[in-house]
Write a structure and sequence with these properties.
Layout (H helix, E strand, L loop, with lengths): L47 H9 L38 H19 L1 H11 L3 H27 L9 E11 L1 H18 L10 E11 L2 E10 L2 E11 L4 E6 L3 E8 L12 H7 L1 H4 L3 H9 L4 H15 L7 E9 L2 E12 L1 H16 L2 H13 L4 H18 L9 E7 L5 E8 L2 E6 L2 E2 L2 E9 L5 E10 L2 E10 L2 E12 H5 L4 E8 L1 H8 L3 H6 L2 E9 L3 E10 L2 E14 L8 E2 L1 H6 L3 H14 L4 H4 L8
Parallel strand pairs: 6-21
Antiparallel strand pairs: 1-2, 1-20, 2-3, 3-4, 4-5, 5-6, 7-8, 8-9, 9-10, 10-11, 11-13, 12-13, 13-14, 14-15, 15-16, 16-17, 17-18, 18-19, 19-20
Helix pairs in contact: 4-9, 8-11, 10-12, 11-12
């Protein structure tokens, strides 16, 4: 081979020329630029600058040189005129690793969240019956204890702080067309004499609005009677139990307060009219709010209550004897669900033993001791004596425990779903039966509930649809084997019910046979035809709404609405009063009656009635 630069003879495979040191690796040849035609059609010659650039890049036409004898020279290394650029480093791809980690985390999270479901599934299929029964009952007891503690907190503990609290509420009775017709049928002849052509269409509602403020050791109560939502008479009361004082005012009658001993308030209830209403308020006025708050604060807190309920219900599991496990279906009104069936029983001996263990444990339970003594101290009682009395009651109960040995005990069947939740339970004893079954299939549910003696149990049975925690459906009512009617549910929230709150609508439609037996052939029978009682409920921690409606043939006879809203804040007014003699001697009764007539007229009462009141024309 020959040097591509100087033409010297080289050994085959040589990479450098020993004469000139040129690299023998041929540089990449760039394609010449395309030949552009010139105006006359002949090809254009490449521009000189392009030739120069090609030579600079190392591309040349090989040159023929005369063969000369090689002269050895020390090879000199030169940087090649052209090097292939190194490819950029490739980015490491972590996408697959990230996806794998996400999947692992998701599986771990799902396993954590569903660990109870997974555990229940494994136990229901693999574990012995006794082990699985203990697992599902303990989980059920934990849920029940938490819900019971929530209800306890809602209904009781939330009222411990009654200082600086205001509760507004009221009660209102509203007449429907059916109610007016019924009232006219009963009083029509009398009303016709007073007001010819009377139809009572002006009579819409009668109610009372209340507001109660509690502050320290005092309280204030205001109550106003209303007709068709127009205020008629207002009664204000301020109670000071610590000083045995009560102050009463009827603003429409006299703005000044009547002062009297609180101990005499009860006696006023024996009178009539407004005095009777005042007497009915004595129960509220005589309540020492500070002592009541102290007594409530001595109650165990929510956590302690949950702990105690769970502890002693768990101890009841000890009475369970041999457990049998099987697979099957739970079906109510055509709604079926695959379940695990657990059957067990406890005889009188086992019940007696379990109760003895529970009562013995209660005697030495320090948590119970703290609760009993704390509540006694809150009521300003002797804590030691209170605890001694409590222990004495437990000892009496222990003496009677042996009587349980003579009982026949009970049999129980428990149904659990695939996740280990109890969806049905049957308990039967010698004089008692309890059944609760609620299978679910998609958004459908079946429900059977029975409670009472075997021969006289009350039973509800039916089906419906479920949306979240809300049930809508119809249940047949049966009492001791007799059909009594239908109980309809509309958006009834079962989760709230477990925590002590009521939300949704319940409607009871008695059977024709039941209504006929009550009404007979009298006028009442026509009123009761297609009768329905509807209760609409919406309660929360600090407020509640109830409406009870009586319906007839789809129309309303009457409805009773009640509401209450509690909130922090409020102030009991500081007042002074007059004694009975001065207060009664300076009353302006004529002005009061004139004000009352004006209010009745605004409420729509016909002149035939208002004109009968003295000063009605004044």
């Amino acid at each position: 081979m020959f040097c591509i630069k100087c033409g010297a003879s080289l050994e085959d495979g040589a990479k450098f020329c020993p004469q000139c040191g040129a690299s023998q690796v041929p540089a990449p040849v760039q394609a010449p630029p395309p030949v552009q035609p010139i105006a006359d059609g002949s090809p254009a010659q490449p521009h000189r600058s392009s030739i120069d650039r090609q030579q600079q890049a190392g591309w040349q036409q090989p040159v023929q040189q005369p063969v000369q004898q090689p002269v050895y020279q020390q090879p000199v290394y030169q940087q090649p005129m052209y090097q292939q650029p190194a490819p950029p480093p490739k980015k490491k791809k972590h996408t697959g690793l990230i996806v794998l980690l996400v999947i692992i985390v998701a599986i771990a999270a799902a396993g954590f969240l569903l660990r109870d479901k997974i555990s229940s599934f494994v136990l229901s299929n693999v574990a012995p019956a006794e082990k699985y029964y203990e697992h599902v009952e303990k989980a059920s007891i934990a849920d029940f204890s938490a819900n019971a503690a929530d209800a306890y907190d809602l209904l009781l503990l939330s009222n411990t702080n009654i200082d600086n609290k205001t509760a507004d509420g009221g009660l209102e009775v509203r007449l429907g067309d059916g109610g007016r017709d019924l009232l006219m049928a009963a009083l029509g002849s009398t009303l016709e004499q007073l007001n010819p052509g009377e139809d009572l269409k002006w009579l819409k509602s009668l109610g009372v609005a209340t507001s109660v403020v509690t502050q320290s050791d005092k309280s204030a109560l205001q109550m106003q009677l209303t007709l068709n939502s127009v205020g008629l008479v207002t009664l204000s009361l301020v109670a000071d139990p610590a000083n045995d004082k009560v102050y009463i005012s009827i603003p429409e009658l006299k703005k000044e307060y009547l002062e009297m001993p609180l101990s005499q308030l009860d006696a006023m209830g024996s009178g009539g009219g407004i005095m009777q209403i005042i007497g009915m308020m004595s129960g509220v006025a005589e309540t020492d709010t500070s002592k009541l708050a102290g007594a409530l604060k001595g109650m165990p807190d929510k956590g302690d209550m949950e702990k105690l309920i769970r502890k002693y219900l768990d101890m009841l599991l000890e009475c369970a004897e041999e457990v049998e496990k099987d697979k099957g279906k739970l079906t109510v009104e055509g709604v079926s669900e695959d379940v695990t069936i657990l059957k067990l029983s406890a005889d009188g001996e086992a019940l007696s033993k379990a109760m003895r263990n529970i009562l013995t444990e209660m005697k030495k339970d320090d948590d119970i001791k703290s609760i009993v003594t704390g509540m006694a101290e809150a009521r300003e009682q002797d804590a030691n004596e209170a605890y001694k009395s409590f222990l004495a009651e437990l000892d009496k109960a222990l003496e009677d425990v042996d009587d349980l040995k003579e009982s026949s005990g009970f049999d129980m069947t428990v149904y659990t779903d695939a996740g280990g939740e109890i969806v049905g339970r049957e308990v039967t004893a010698e004089d008692f039966v309890y059944i609760m079954k609620k299978p679910e299939q998609g958004d459908k549910f079946g429900l059977e509930f029975s409670f009472g003696s075997p021969d006289g149990a009350l039973t509800l049975k039916g089906d419906g649809r479920k949306s979240g925690d809300k049930l809508t459906g119809e249940l047949d009512i049966d009492a001791a084997g007799t059909y009594m009617g239908v109980l309809a549910l509309d958006s009834f929230d079962e989760a709230k019910l477990q925590k002590g709150m009521l939300s949704g609508t319940i409607e009871i439609r008695p059977s024709d046979a039941l209504l006929g037996s009550v009404g007979g052939d009298s006028m009442l029978s026509s009123v009761l035809r297609n009768l329905a009682i509807r209760l609409e409920m919406d309660t929360a921690k600090d407020k509640g709404r109830f409406t009870l409606s009586i319906l007839n043939d789809g129309g309303s006879l009457l409805s009773i609405g009640a509401n209450a809203d509690a909130k922090s804040g409020g102030k009991v007014p500081s007042v002074s009063g007059e004694d009975m003699e001065k207060w009664s001697s300076e009353m302006d009764a004529q002005s009061f009656l004139a004000t009352l007539v004006g209010s009745l007229e605004r409420a729509g009462v016909p002149d035939a009635y208002t004109s009968m009141i003295p000063a009605g024309n004044g």
